[in-house]
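Comment thread on ticket #2218

A.B. wrote:
> Attaching the input chain for the structure job we discussed in standup.
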Amino acid sequence: MERAIAERWQAILDVLRKDLTLTQFETWFDVSKVKPASIDDGVLHLDVPNRYFKAVLSENYRPKIVRAAEKIMGMEPRLEISVSGELYRALRSQQQEEVLLPLAPEQVRKPAVSSQSALNLLFSWDSFVVGHGNRLAHSALATVAESPGGVYNPVLIHGGHGLGKTHLLQAVTAVIREKHPEVNIAFMPSETFVNEYVGAVPSKSLPAFRKKMRSLDVLVVDDFHFFLGKHKTLQEFRHTFDTLQSMGKQIVLSSLVPPGDMEGLPAALKGRLMSGLMIRLEPPGPDLRMDLVRAKAARIRVQLPEAVATYLAGHVSGSVREIEGAVAKVCAMALSDGRVPDVPLARKALAELQSLRQEPVSLSEIADAVADYFRLDPSALRGRSRIRSIAVPRHVAMYLAKEFNGYSLTEIGQFFGGRNHSTVLYATARIAADLAENHQLKQIISKIRSSLGR
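C.D. wrote:
> Ran it. Output below, let me know if you need it in another format.
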């Protein structure tokens, strides 16, 4: 009976193979990962090793499986897919053997030079200051570092600029390398993935690129939102993601916004990301701000009086980056003048950094400044038009409004034409992504900031 089932399944596979690429077939229909439980009474029942495998076959390959089976069975079967404990244990055992297999020194895989050089030594695990707004992310990645591909997979850390996403991702990469030297891990900004993929296409080195990416044990990608609007790259990343996920490999990502708020992200990839662990980094609260001030002062070896630390923590309420910049400014001014930092000096430093603006920038002021630069009527930014000559300035205005503290996404959306918070998130993410490669846009935003006294 089992032999008959195996022979019919092999016949179905022979038909299916012609309808798939070699990569798809080898990834999703390997005999060790998909097995027929029964083929009878108009039902094709398959066993797979985990729920992820089940979801991929159900969502992406069901019609092709049914068509191939119909040619062999003589009728359109009902396809049933179940998770098999036996296949799950076999797959995990195989992965453990691959990790534990002793290698000669010359055989030990080394991280790619590009991913090695991308790490900033200042972004170490020990130097990350933990507080209320980032404790969950720190704890989750500590678990990942202990057991890559185990409890949390994939992991996506999201939040605004300067809250520590890059620091956390680079730090966990370094820890995994230290704890698991046999693991093949790569950290890369999303721009690096894009550039390598785009460069591989015309040079006919795409197979080598895919082999490199899909043979990783751990993939860490910073600024995932940079992929938005790059449809070919998103498609390539999705195949890489699916291959690694199916083999139980670890994936860690960061983004300005969560997947649910990414317009233009394919539904299948959005679902994959949302099935994992998503953690939002919050702006630092009073206690964390005080810890950040003290930590930064200690790193640059300056004794900061308690009154000065308290003043800085109370008057700089932005990102981690802004807080550390303010401390560096105060300490630099004190060292330059040969004096001990005091509150008047801190007040002067913050004034120079324009961190103590007496009146917040209003949404109307932002709209007026953006409209003036682009030579538009401010009312156009608040209207419903979606033509590019108005939509792009509107996105810039939304980005600046989000950057200046005090305005919620809902407030920004309501001001700019009654748009919802998801639209604001998408607009600000696109501008942030474009800033990474568009020098002209950087200049535009810098000029508008200056006109607003920021």
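A.B. wrote:
> Thanks. Noting for the ticket: The mean pLDDT is 84.
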